[in-house]
Structure formats: structure tokens, C-alpha cells
Amino acid sequence: MITFDASASGISGDALARAAASRARPALSLLESGKGAGGEFTDWLRLPEETGGLDAIKAEAARINGMSEVLVVVGIGGSYLGARALMEMLTPEFGPKKVVFAGKDLSARRTAELLKYLGERDFSVNVISKSGGTTEPSAAFRLLLGLLEKKYGEAAKDRVTVTTDPCRGALLALARERGWRHYGIPSGVGGRYSVLSPVGLLPAAAAGIDTEALLAGARAEKACMLSLGAESPELRYASARRLLAENGFTGELLSCWEPCLRGLGDWYEQLFAESEGKEGRGIFPVSLEMPAELHSIGQFIQQGPRTLMETMLHFAGDGPDLCVPSTGDGIDDDLSGKSLGGIASAIRRAVISAHSAGGVPVMSVEAEKPCAEEAGALIWFFEAACAVSAYMDGVNPFDQPGVEDYKKIMRELLRNE
Question: Residue 362 forms beta bridges with which residues?
């Protein structure tokens, strides 16, 4: 279960409770009813319970792993950020990588390095795109498909798995034509809310993540939210963000206190930016890796413009019992015999105290430990809080009309090249 603490935010308990009851709770009801703006894209609310296709996803992951050392996930935005967040949180950083990502950039250097890396290994490809026409993944997929066909000939078709719209689109048509296995992204689920669909579950299963536990964690967090209502962490967090934004705090720093949470921070940025940033409104989301970034932008946070709120994201436990030995020379005696987790906790508490005293409202979101259940709970927590927060601000959480502007210009430029 996720916990939320706003005691260092400067918001009184009464004000937060009133906002959660009078504003966030109606926003949640609007979300659940599907009658709000973008209501046709609220099917993600049911994903934690929709486990019927999970056995097929796990079987496909096992099939891929049986013939390949590496699975290349091709996608951009919501088609890869959630899966990458799960990988970073739940798989070892130091060790062989079962899953790598492509299609998120157009770097010729990185792509050439990837093709060389894959040329020496058995690999499969999972291309993820609802429309099938997104430029960056389309370009990467064509190059990867060429390498697959060169290496495996006719058998290359067994190494391509497509995750796309279940009913229409260029990628679905191509999958049917070429005989590729394909999985559907539910039509009522937008990319940034799709982590608990085949978009995130297939790569997660291929990486060895317990997908049943992932969904169970999301179900448990959802049940807790519905039971607690206005007192739930989701509605209290959404309310605190809105109250602070209305008092001039228009940027949010998500400070991640474990390196394995950095991918979740990147996913959070897309989730909140695309859901809230429209009609001249929204809270600008930025994620940080702590304590590293105390030594890069910590000065700006402490004494810069008072427009930032900060949310500390951390785990309750300290992790393995690693203690700092004494050097015997009197240097840093304060560290001798202290656990790394204890030192990190002291730094975090010091930062909360310093930043809040300096005029930065600080909130805290805590998960128990980095495991599949808690990962599912965190995904649910942020998705629900984001949608509620957007409805509280009067915007559609599920469209992204501004993203299309550059694409129109880009297509015209490519046609005229």
C-alpha cells in the first residue's frame, strides 16, 4: 500500500481534507462514470482486474525467451516508458539485459551500435504502437526487421511480436499479412495509461517480472482508494497538488530516492505533462534522482524562485544491511558504522526540513519496497491521482492535441526533402 504525507507542504490538514472531499471525490466519481471529458479513454480503470489474457502473454514471453537472448522493445512515449520503469525498478542493474529499447530516438550512432550488438546475438522484436505510424519507432523497426530477415530468413516472422490497435491500423494489417503474432491495446486505453496492458506486461514477463503480482498490487491499491475515498493517498495527493498550484507553485519535482525509481520518474513526467499541460494550464513535472541532484540543482531548489513544489518518492525499508567501515584516520567519523540506508534517510529528512523551511512545499509518497506488488501499486497511484488532478483543474486528462502540431509540420518537411 502506498502512503502519502503532506505535513511539510504548508497545507493544513483541514484544508487538505476539505479539498479532497469537496473537489477530488467528485472528480473521481466523474472519472469512474466515464462521463467526463475523454471518458471513452477510461478503460485503464479496469486493467488490474482484466487478467484473462495474462496466460497468453506469459506463454509468449516464454516462447521469446526460449529462442532469444535479447528482446528489443520498439516504442516511444507511453509505448515504452512504463515498461522501462518496471525493468529499472524490478530487474538488476548490473547483469545481462534480457530487454533493450529502440525507437525512442533517431540517433544513427546509437542505432548502429544496437544493430552491431544484436548481430552477435539471437534476438526478437516487440514493436508497440497503437497507430503504427509513429515516425521514430517506424524507422527503428524497419532497420531491425531488415536485420532479422538477414539473420533468420523466413524464420524471422517467428521473432516479431506486435502490440497495436486490435481492430485497425497499418501495423495490425502488416502483422496479419506477414504472419506476426499480435496483441491488442484496448481501444479505451491511451498510451500513457497502458502499463498494465500488453504494452507493459509482455516486456515485463520477458524480463522475468511477476506480472500476476504486478496486477495484484494494482488491484489492492485500487481497492484501498475506493474504500478510503477522500482519505485515500491518491485523492489527497491530487488535492495537495491543486491547492499548491493555485497558490503559485506551478512546477513539481518528483525526487526519487532510489536509482531504480528513475525510470518511473521519466514515466511520471509523460503521464502528468500530457494529461495536464493544455489550455494554458497544468503543473510542469520534472523528476530528479536523489541525492545525486542535490549536488547539481539543489542550490536552485533551495534558493531559486518560489514556484516549485517537491514530492519525495522513496521506499520504507533501508535495503541490504551495508555499513560504512571506519578508515581509522579520523576522516568522516560521522559515517563510521552507519548503514547506507540510515545515511540516505538522514539526508532525505534534512532535505525535507531545509527545503520546506526555505519555502518549497514538500510532500512524500512512500512504497514498502521494490517488488512487483508495490510497482503495480505505484502505477495505479500515479495514474489515478493524475486523472483526478486533471479533472479538478478542468482539463481532459486523456488527449494530447499539442503533440500533433509538430507532427504535421514534420510530415510536410519529410515530403519535401
Answer: 8, 310
